[in-house]
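Q: What does the assembled structure look like for these inputs?
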Amino acid sequence: MTQHKVIFTPSGIRATASGEDTVYDVALAAGVDLQSICGGKGMCNRCQVEVEPGSHAKYGITVGEDALSDFTDSEKRAIEKGRLQPGRRLACRARVLGDVVVDVPADAREYDTSISKTSVAFLTDLAPAVTLHMLELPQQELDDNPSDAEALSAALRRFGIEASPKHRTLVKLQPILAKNNRRLIAVVRDDREIIDIWPPEMFHVYGAAIDIGSTSIALYVYDLSQGELAYEASAMNPQIRFGEDLMSRVSYCMLNKGGEEKLTKAVREQVAAMLEQARVTLSLGQNQILEVVAVGNPIMHHLFLGISPVELGQAPFTLAVKDQFQVPARLLDLGISESARVTMLPLIGGHVGADTTGAYLTQIDAMEGRSVLLVDIGTNAEIVLSHGGKVAAASSPTGPAFEGAEISAGVRASKGAIERVRIDPATGSARVRIIGHDEWNSDSDGSALPHRVSGICGSGIFEVMVELADAGFIDRGGLFRPEACPARFVQDGKSWKFLLVDQPGAQIWIKQTDIRSVQLAKAALAAGVRLLTDHLGCESFDEVLLAGAFGNHLDSSYVARIGIIPGAEADQIRSIGNAAGMGAAMAMFNRAEQQKLVEAVRHIEKVETATEPKFQDYFVEAMAFPSAPQSNDENQQGRGRRRRSRDRTA
Amino acid sequence: MTQHKVIFTPSGIRATASGEDTVYDVALAAGVDLQSICGGKGMCNRCQVEVEPGSHAKYGITVGEDALSDFTDSEKRAIEKGRLQPGRRLACRARVLGDVVVDVPADAREYDTSISKTSVAFLTDLAPAVTLHMLELPQQELDDNPSDAEALSAALRRFGIEASPKHRTLVKLQPILAKNNRRLIAVVRDDREIIDIWPPEMFHVYGAAIDIGSTSIALYVYDLSQGELAYEASAMNPQIRFGEDLMSRVSYCMLNKGGEEKLTKAVREQVAAMLEQARVTLSLGQNQILEVVAVGNPIMHHLFLGISPVELGQAPFTLAVKDQFQVPARLLDLGISESARVTMLPLIGGHVGADTTGAYLTQIDAMEGRSVLLVDIGTNAEIVLSHGGKVAAASSPTGPAFEGAEISAGVRASKGAIERVRIDPATGSARVRIIGHDEWNSDSDGSALPHRVSGICGSGIFEVMVELADAGFIDRGGLFRPEACPARFVQDGKSWKFLLVDQPGAQIWIKQTDIRSVQLAKAALAAGVRLLTDHLGCESFDEVLLAGAFGNHLDSSYVARIGIIPGAEADQIRSIGNAAGMGAAMAMFNRAEQQKLVEAVRHIEKVETATEPKFQDYFVEAMAFPSAPQSNDENQQGRGRRRRSRDRTA
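A:
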């Protein structure tokens, strides 16, 4: 089979293409950072690459004009729509026909995903499960020696530790003692288990906190001997190729025999690769990463453990395990020490997972004795409310609108995405601010835009909706009012669309379906919050905490104004960043905090939104945009009529 | 390379020989039962086989006259000495030159080794560590379900068991529940660990008791749900090829880098093969053998665990581990369930191992509050004495004489070996009884012998010595007195030898060096016993227990008369069979017995023979044969003069 050299820049990764390989196939196999949320199906337009024909002396390659296959129809459509920049190709469409140098532009690289860097700090004492103890065992004498295992236990007893070496340690005990004049470092876990012994010159043990999101995986590696963050990285969750959202992945498992094994393997391999990269970057020995604390929603949690999630895809949504769960890392094929342990933080229920409890841990003291609402907004919104000495939790099916998905111009919260919007009610022109740039872009006249806009991220969507409502461009029921600003609306099939950014070749539009998606999401979240406040009898909040990357880009006044959290005032709303990952790190830092969480979670009351009759009522009420003008027929907001009302906008 | 077919009978095993392969090489590779204690070096004459030239229609092979290489010098010498029966070959010397059918006669097969079959019974209640519990979990309802892990724990709680499923169990919990209408069998260990879950139709869990001797390995498989012995087998310890005795194996490890790994691999592979054979024979599932309790002397124990024994080959003889030790079976590559556990019974000291504590467990109640001596005679003799509420133990370096090794006509205790001897003081002619036949062979006139005699086993050696002493054919110092029976003595180099059995072509002689070997062995054992009785102030025994295959063939009156156990009367002496293996089984049968042993062993006082000055004195005193006539110069019994005195016998 003919083979071609493929060199990726700027990483310098070299790979080989053969057969019908696309650039995406080669990149995936070679571990090149390349965004994709559709899994190489030509749908998301994320995997953009650039190829420059000609001689690349540095790599000893001459790239021919025909090194890649011709532009496909989907690429041509993407160019037409301004979604694919001129000169670029979609990696998943372009087949490799000759040696080629492929440049992955910054905006197509995974690690550019903006996981908040501000959120790596938290307050707790360093008291991890794994501790190091330098020991010197007495020289043995002839008569009736204790065994060396007994001598080791006796030496540890002086630290208040009762532990005997297990097999892995035992077999290397005597050689280490012989080589180091009977000195060694004992690696002890939970003050009761000798998990390794080291020569007396290794002084640092490391731990990894991992947040396994359905979209991306975040890794934080800490030096647990010093309490310092040593490394962090994030990457796409490769399960995305089996389904973008959680339910489509569960469906994949239901419909494909062995599907769950593929999903499990995909996420574990990604985590293992990230850990290996950390190990290499930090020049760690094979046995130095000894603790892993991981969080994730229930489906991510189960799949990472190798448990089929199918029971979570159908009522009665029974978790295989809910409590904190610990497992030797070797059973998850993570490629770290045989002795390392993985701790999965506890879950609250079928739809409220360890990511939520991780976030809760970071706020557990702040929430104690106060009325605090903690909201983690993603494809589902998980909500935790403390009030009157009790804690309750629920999950609301917001759908992916708040993450920028299902929005026609939606993109993930990465460079170039709109995160702030101001619409002039008089002219309908919009000023925007994009991620990666502090200054506001000027008016929506494209020629004046200093930076190219890639689309709207989840937080930008909020502001668009509030601004549209405030300007009177939509009514309370969420229908466009094109008569309010004829200059910015154009016909869109049977409906209308609103011109938000008029940049050349890549105009950004808001469609009626976008409004609907946001409406559904905000209604679901608001209804969930109301069920919880009802449940605990909470009438006002001391504080409202927004967790997740989403919250970082939000302007709290807009959160208050759009009404997704009934009763929340702008000055109560605070973003707490990637609290899930921080909770994992916090649990790793301090065993007592971890135990506190385990206990606390057992007392959280789970409120089921799916079976609560009031949920529907609250949902319908929350569909409205309160600051918008009344619609012609207020009754059209009824949930049962949404489809019909959408048709009528035409 | 030319290849030849080799078929072994009676097993029917088919194999292929190529290159320079000997019959032994082929047999070893093919797993044919064939004795060897020298590891194929042409030294032990054990690996005898028979080849019949001609057409073997059953196997479609015609065996040529030249199917094997010519007789080697060592074979010719063996024939001359009567050690190799006419018509037989040594498998380790005969190279395969053509297709051949090789018959392995019964006396050359490993499984013929006579491990006592009488000793498989012991008295204890069935209360093993692993128990089965049939459970039915409640159907899940919609609101706030417990997880299935919690439901399983709750169901077990009704049996008084507090346990949560671990990873291996958790991943298959929901599928098993779904398939079996929420019924399952929980496999629980130690009342606190769920080690497996089974569909609700498997009702038997099995356990293996293993006695890892330096010569042979004995396996007993029990149905732990019913308390029945289901299978037993024994095989050579394949480590023999690295050294026949313990110290030569330790030397092998000291002199050869990676040697201990080879020894470990050899014994584990043998045990794994025996377990697999048991599993297949009993038609067990892969996961049904869940407990293993193993015993062995300290070096066998350490090597089986994968611990280098080199610290046991040099002062100060420090054990890596002495207490009972448990290890997942998967870490020892035993090929049984991932969840199975191996328990190594505790050791007493550097030379007193888990085989001794196993034997002790079977007698622990019998020894309590009484003066009882327990002796396990092998290459070392391990001795345990209870007296006055205390227990002490020692090891004596007897050498292998009692096992028939280092005796010129010595053989292992297998079919055809002399186990009883009566010598007529008047004529010097001997009647013998051989293993496998109840009647006595007639007078030593070879023509009248109904069965062929292969040699003398350890127990036979005892009687020979006692009879020679009683007849006055040796003096108290152990020197031959040829003048007492000129008809049976002939010159042997500078010394003499005594004709014991005059069978045609295979006379059996007792040599002066044989007397010396037995003298050294009996003196070592007697000295060890005296140190122990001194230590505890014990002046007489209530009972003397002999453990091991050796004891089974002993006539207790001869044990008393030869004086190896100073103070022991014939009617106090009792054989307790393979007590080591039985102790392993007993510990497996009953957790409380096992725990009792662990506690008791911690209180056993270890007496060091190597460093005790009195040992030498006692040793010298015990060299004498008390019933023999005085020697010309009584002083020659002094240990320092033995070599010289040996020269003088010429």
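DSSP finds 16 helices and 28 strands in chain B.
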